[in-house]
Design brief:
- By secondary structure, the protein is mainly alpha-helical.
- It is about 55% helix and about 5% strand.
- The protein has helices spanning about 10-20, 30-55, 60-80, 85-100, 105-115, 115-120, 125-140, 170-175; strands spanning about 5, 150, 160, 185.
- The longest helix has 24 residues, at about 30-55.
- The relative contact order is 0.17.
Length: about 200
């Protein structure tokens, strides 16, 4: 599937686990929650199909992704980061998944700034920031810090985007709550091309 990069499923699972540890509460904006979760589910299904087909991103997937990111932008313009108090853990996690589809580093860097207050207030979990940071690094052609971004390939065959200071990666991942990378293959192209 060429030069497409995505979050490693096991690292996204770390975000899900962090959200499950939160006390359950009814979000005050269930319509926004339903919209975000529906969009995240649709994107997951389309990406799974594209990955299985092995013939690159389909135009419909690109259009769907653009639509989802545009919807997330509108929510953020009105409400800021959709935190747990607004959309619950499920809705906030869906917002993260949609953000990780984004192919625009400047938007992700903006999200990282917007997310600072919700992080301090317990409205988001730190692993959200780490996943968004690595995605932004890939889009900017920089080395990632946590090893969460891999080339889209058939399951079990992911190749990691290059990592900053690889000797410290295990410590950074452990501190972040990510599982160790066992047998990881690092991508070291002559000229890096982001998704």
């Amino acid at each position: 599937m060429g030069d497409l990069w995505e979050v490693r499923p096991v690292d996204l699972a770390a975000a899900r686990t962090a959200c499950r540890r939160l006390p359950e509460r009814q979000p005050p904006r269930p319509g926004i929650t339903a919209d975000l979760t529906g969009r995240a589910e649709a994107a997951r299904a389309w990406r799974a199909d594209a990955r299985q087909d092995g013939d690159g991103p389909q135009p419909a997937l690109t259009m769907l992704t653009t639509s989802h990111v545009r919807a997330l932008r509108r929510i953020i313009e009105v409400h800021g980061w959709p935190g747990f108090g607004l959309v619950g853990a499920e809705g906030s996690l869906a917002a993260l998944e949609i953000a990780l589809l984004c192919g625009e580093a400047t938007f992700l860097r903006r999200l990282l700034r917007v997310m600072e207050v919700p992080l301090r207030n317990g409205e988001a979990v730190p692993v959200f920031r780490l996943l968004l940071h690595d995605r932004a690094c890939v889009l900017e052609g920089q080395r990632q810090w946590y090893g969460t971004q891999q080339q889209v390939r058939p399951p079990g065959a992911g190749v990691l985007w290059p990592v900053e200071e690889p000797g410290l990666l295990a410590v950074r991942r452990a501190d972040a709550g990510f599982e160790p990378l066992v047998g990881a293959v690092f991508h070291e192209p002559a000229a890096q091309t982001a998704a």
